[in-house]
Amino acid sequence: MRLRFHGRDTALPEDSGPLIYAFWHAQLAMMPWVQLRPPSVVPISQSKDGEWTARLFSRLNAETVRGSTSRGGAAALRGLVRAARDGKDLAITPDGPRGPAEKVQPGAIWLARLSGRPLLPVAFASRPVFHVGSWDRVIVPLPFSRGVFEYGELLWVARDVDESAVERARVELEGRINSVTDRARRRLVT
To answer: Which of 15, 99, 121, 163 could crosslink 176 through cysteines, CB 3.0-4.6 Å?
Structure first.
């Protein structure tokens, strides 16, 4: 597979501290290659599918924290905040593990708020690609395909924001992930 990376050179925070990669659940299969500074810490659900995913990520130099919004979420959130404080980058799917697809859930904003680290919207697009018949339509690049990673602008969430600011940040992050996803797809046309 031929891969291209756009925006990677300006994606790191100025303080070079850890960041939180935020991408759609459908792009999860390719995200181990998005890391700017491995290892990253990834929350993985406690399901059977999660076990398979955890093994895959560990082989690709990513650490895992088990738990999701449906089971073990509080423990996973604590583990992610602890990892960020230890200087590790984080990677999350703000629309997972059950969706709705491409809709940011507030947990992503809470993580940024509690950890004090910025969210980095990233996306992956490929051509040709196979879509798995799941709720999120996971993309799997076909052999000899072209792939594009697109990095967006950092989104910081202040620790002392109120609920209305959390909602504005949630909407902003959703828009930014959609924007980098659209840009990645357009790059495949040219």
So the answer is: 121
